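User: two proteins, same treatment. go.

Assistant:
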Amino acid sequence: MPLIYFGAADMSGSRNDLALEFVGVLIFVGLAVFGYYKSYLALGFGIMAHGVGWDSWHHHSHPYVASWHPMACLLADLALGFLVITQAGAYQAPIHSLKADRS
């Protein structure tokens, strides 16, 4: 989802906005990959943090983002983050731990 902000900044033509959104993509994608492989709870809280921090920050502060998008993304991030957190107990082991142990 952070790619939507990146695309909007690209269409705005501002290099500063594009650089800022690129940094946001690197940070949030990096955190998502870390959470996916290391901790589903961290992933869920990271998704929620994206909504509370990044989306709230974009609300009415960046003209290149549609006015409705930050609030819609915030709600989607909170719902998805809550879902990941509540389901984390069923999937405690990160993906690489599911491989058969041959020792």
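Protein 2:
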Amino acid sequence: MSAITLQPGVTLTSGYLDRSAQEAVLAAVRAVIAAAPLYTPRMPRSGKPMSVRMTNCGPLGWVTDAARGYRYQATHPETGVPWPPIPDIVMQAWRDLAGDAPTPQACLVNYYAPDARLGLHQDKDEQDLAAPVVSLSLGDTGLFRVGGVKRSDPTCSVRLASGDAVVLGGAGRLAFHGVDRILPETSTLVREGGRFNLTLRRVSAPNLRGASQTRVNALWDGLWTRANALHATARCASSPGAVISSACPSRKAMLPAATVAS
């Protein structure tokens, strides 16, 4: 199956999940909800309830409330329990659709009742904007609207059916998007009606510093050992029997500030 471009960097793969795969993903979603119940998020400051209900899976989950606003945290805001892991079948979709992007850290699960909607917004609470957002639709068709990276940019709308996948990456990673409405009774997948939407995100940039820091430290260890040896040679040459002491700079003193801080 091939993807079509909705906006620069925003692609739609219709029918990415066949019916059996949809049923398997839905079963995994219900298991997530059993461990982390759907709750009603609230808008920052105003506390106005959103029309969608949500939960999360993965090391981190996206939440919002009146007091602290939009953020990621490791626990359910109502139960205080850590989010369950992202199901393997959902991770497979990330591997298929996200290219070589690093492992996602959050999977937001939104449930849209027949009267729910979601206004135009950007997914911009993540530190890592290089990784795409991968979205999977289950259940009733949603009228999806997507524009550019400015709210004033022109938008287009498309019907997202059960099993469709959308990827926002590259030039479209910060595209404004939302769901205008749900078209009831357009799918038989979700027995209670409505639509589930899963969005996989990478929250923080991959920690490459640790590996590179190891190499830097090894290099400085070698330089320090050599400098110490040269210092010893010089001291011995000028004063036979002298003992090497704090006159030789320590390894830590030789390290750049960023390295010492680690």
